[in-house]
C-alpha cells in the first residue's frame, strides 16, 4: 500500500473544481498583483486570528522578516528563539540585522522553554520569537509576562499553526492574537496551503501594519515614492484566490488531522518503542505534523520507505549547529533537548484525506519493525 507523507492530489480531487473556477475568473480579470483577492484574504485571516490587520506577503519567511525589519535592529541586537525549527525563523533574524540567541525547548512539546527565555534576556534583547511548532501554540503566558515586564516585543512564528488556539485564563486565544505581530506561511504543505509560496503578517498595531505594508512594496505606499528601502514581497492575487477557496475548509481539515492524531496515539498506546506527541492540555493542536520519537529512527525511516510509507525528519540538525551560524559560538551539547529531538523525531502521514486503511498500514509497519 502506498501512503504518502502528504497527498495534495487527494485534496485537489475533493475541492479542485471550486478552486479552478475562482482561478479562471481571476484569469479573466487579468489583475494579478495584490488587488481585491489579497484584500479579502487579509481581512479573513486577520479575523480568524483575532487581529486587526492582515498584510499579505510573498512567503512565510517574509512574514517573519518584515516585522523584524520594522524593529530597526542594529548590529548586536539580540532576538531570542528556538534552535529546533525550520531555518527561516533564525534566518529572518539574521537578515533583519539581528543576532539569533538560541535557547532550549521543552522536551514534551518541542516548543520554546519559557524559563530558558527568561534566563537568556540581556540588555541587548530586542525581541522574542517563539515558534508554534508542528501545530500547537507555545506556552505564551509566561513568555508574554517576561517580555511585557521588560518592554520586549514578542513576534509569533505561526507558520505551522494557522487556526491553532490556546486556553488562557479560561478563554480561547488564537495563534496570531497575542504577539506584537505574527507570521503565517501558506506553503503548499501547510494546513492552509497555496499553489506556491505565500505568507501573511497579522497584527493589531496600526503603525506596525502600515510599516509592513510599506516594506513589502519597496518602502513606499505611493507609486514611485519611497520613504525607505523596502523589498518586493507582495502576495500574488493568484495565491490569494486559491487560499480564499480553501479557507472555508480549514476548520474541518484541522479537525480531521486531530482525529487521525488521536487514532495514532491510541494505536501506539501500548507500544513501548514509540513516544507519541504530547499535546499541552491548554492547547487545541492542529497537527500540521504528527511527530513520534523513536530509537533507531533512521533505520525505521528506511524500513518504512521500502514499504511505501512516506515520512520526514523535522529537523535533522538543530540551528545552532548549522555551519552558517558558527559565528554565534554555540557548540554541540548547548541545547540537550533540541539536540536529542533531532536524533529521534519522525513525522508520519496525518493529512485530512488519509484513510483508516492507510493509517492502519502505517501502524502495522512501525509495530512490525519493532517486533510489537
Q: Please work out how many helical segments DSSP would assign.
A: 12
**Name of the CATH architecture of the largest domain:** 3-Layer(aba) Sandwich
Distance between the termini: 20 Å
Please write the string of helix (H) and strand (E) elements: HHEHEHEHEHEEEEEHHHEEEHHEH
Q: What is the CA-based Rg, rounded? A: 21 Å
CATH class of the largest domain: Alpha Beta
Overall helicity: 25-40%
Shape: globular
Largest sheet: 4 strands, mixed
CATH topology of the largest domain: Aspartate Aminotransferase, domain 2
Q: What structural class results from the helix and strand content?
A: alpha/beta
Q: What spatial order of strands do you see in the largest sheet?
A: 1-9-8-5
Task: Calculate the mean pLDDT score and round it.
Answer: 97
What does the model show?
By secondary structure, the protein is an alpha/beta fold. It has two domains: 234 residues, Aspartate Aminotransferase, domain 2; 122 residues, Aspartate Aminotransferase, domain 1 (Alpha-Beta Complex), CATH 3.90.1150.10. Helix content is 38%, strand content 14%. The strands form four sheets. A four-stranded mixed beta sheet has the order 1-9-8-5, with helices on both faces. Helix 2 crosses helix 8, helix 3 packs parallel to helix 4 and helix 5 packs parallel to helix 6. The chain starts with 7 loop residues before the first helix and ends with a helix. The model has no long low-confidence stretch (mean pLDDT 97).
